[in-house]
TrEMBL record, chain A:
It is found in: Cell membrane; Membrane. InterPro entries: ATP_syn_F0_a_bact/chloroplast, ATP_synth_F0_asu, ATP_synth_F0_asu_AS, F0_ATP_A_sf. This is ATP synthase subunit a. The chain crosses the membrane at residues 35-52, 89-109, 129-155, 175-195, 201-230. It comes from Thermorudis sp. GO terms for molecular function: proton-transporting ATP synthase activity, rotational mechanism. It is a multi-pass membrane protein.
From TrEMBL, chain B:
This is ATP synthase subunit c. It is a multi-pass membrane protein. GO terms for cellular component: plasma membrane; proton-transporting ATP synthase complex; proton-transporting two-sector ATPase complex, proton-transporting domain. Its main location: membrane. It is found in: Cell membrane; Membrane. Belongs to the ATPase C chain family. One of its GO terms (molecular function) is proton-transporting ATP synthase activity, rotational mechanism. F(1)F(0) ATP synthase produces ATP from ADP in the presence of a proton or sodium gradient. F-type ATPases consist of two structural domains, F(1) containing the extramembraneous catalytic core and F(0) containing the membrane proton channel, linked together by a central stalk and a peripheral stalk. During catalysis, ATP synthesis in the catalytic domain of F(1) is coupled via a rotary mechanism of the central stalk subunits to proton translocation. Key component of the F(0) channel; it plays a direct role in translocation across the membrane. A homomeric c-ring of between 10-14 subunits forms the central stalk rotor element with the F(1) delta and epsilon subunits. The keyword Hydrolase does not apply. The keyword Transmembrane applies. NCBIfam families: ATP_synt_c. Residues 7-70 form the V-ATPase proteolipid subunit C-like domain. It comes from the Bacteria. It comes from Thermorudis sp.
Length: 253, 76
């Protein structure tokens, strides 16, 4: 019993469940976490298809729900980054939020991380997947920085006021993004595994509820930190283009 | 001295959680104080507070990852 429920989760490395023969590359090992991330993407794609299948100007049903979520995000983005940049950052920020949220919530469904070699395991309990998302954010931020302040100014940032200081803070951002998400979800998985092998009655339900809360908070943190990094590096462009508007807003606040 | 590795794992997360615990406590305490002074602004405080807490929490997560790595080294 304990063998089935508790101890398998303690391994950081995910299990390889099958390998895919990709032409031109060769055998690509597919782990259970990668498979689960595909399922999460599938769920998002299906919801997106169903919500936009019969679009109408006066939304109803699923379209209404999805529009409410996106509008909430748009409001948050415009509040943080201003109306123009908010709309530009919205796709990356909202997509990472929705993917992480769906993956986290699917990860606590029954069937995930059960048995010796589970076919399903919460996608974000694999450091490879969280690191992949963090690397995407890292390059997006760097390219936005170069586009916003020009190559010369961008390179100057690395030398002034102290050489290397800026480099380490920039490299620390993706590392902490990846490790935070991975650590939270992986620890939650082990916690639930342990609790359901120690007290397999009522008590795990409390932790499942807590993990749902952790899932939404971690998704929000990943998305909002992405937004904050993007906003900070494009601040120069903001002052340049919307200078008068920004000052007027600042004096209001 | 591989027999001390479990102790190292326990100390890593135990001491590593100390600082972030204090940091999160101070942070939320100040946020509660601010909400008490100005309850209407609680909606505006939520997001900056969560982002600040995420930075404090990240340190505890590093300690947790180190503890897991140590635990994995002894075949837990």
């Amino acid at each position: 019993m304990a063998e089935q429920q508790g101890h398998h989760g303690a391994s950081i490395a995910p299990h390889e469940i099958f390998s895919l023969d990709v032409p031109g590359i060769g055998d690509v090992p597919v782990t259970n976490t990668l498979f689960s991330s595909w399922l999460a993407m599938g769920v998002l794609l299906i919801v997106a298809y169903l919500a936009t299948r019969r679009m109408s100007l006066v939304p109803s049903g699923l379209q209404n729900v999805v529009e409410a979520i996106i509008e909430q995000f748009l409001r948050m983005a415009e509040q943080t980054a201003g109306p123009k940049r908010g709309r530009r950052f919205l796709p990356l920020v909202a997509t990472s939020f929705l993917f992480i949220l769906v993956a986290n919530w699917m990860g606590i469904l029954p069937g995930y991380a059960e048995g010796q070699t589970p076919w399903l395991r919460s996608a974000n309990s694999d450091l490879n997947i969280t690191a992949a998302m963090a690397i995407v954010v890292f390059f997006w931020v760097q390219v936005s920085a170069i586009r916003a302040m020009g190559v010369v100014h961008y390179l100057k940032e690395f030398l002034v006021p102290l050489p290397l200081l800026h480099l380490f803070t920039e490299l620390g951002k993706p590392v902490s993004l990846a490790l935070r998400l991975f650590g939270n979800i992986f620890a939650g998985e082990i916690l639930i595994g342990m609790m359901s092998s120690l007290v397999p009655f009522v008590i795990p339900a409390v932790f499942l509820l807590f993990e749902m809360f952790v899932g939404v908070v971690q998704a929000l943190i990943f998305a909002m930190l992405t937004m904050a990094f993007l906003t900070i590096v494009t601040e120069h462009e903001h002052e340049h283009e919307e200078g008068a508007h920004g000052h007027a807003e600042a004096s209001h606040g | 001295m591989p027999e001390f590795t479990p102790l190292a794992a326990g100390l890593a997360i135990g001491l590593g959680a100390l600082g972030p615990g204090l940091g999160i406590g101070f942070g939320v305490g100040k946020a509660m104080e601010a909400i008490g002074r100005n309850p209407e602004a609680s909606g505006n405080m939520f997001l900056p507070m969560i982002i600040g807490l995420a930075f404090a929490e990240a340190v505890a997560i590093y300690a947790l990852v180190v503890a897991f790595l140590l635990f994995g080294a002894i075949g837990g």
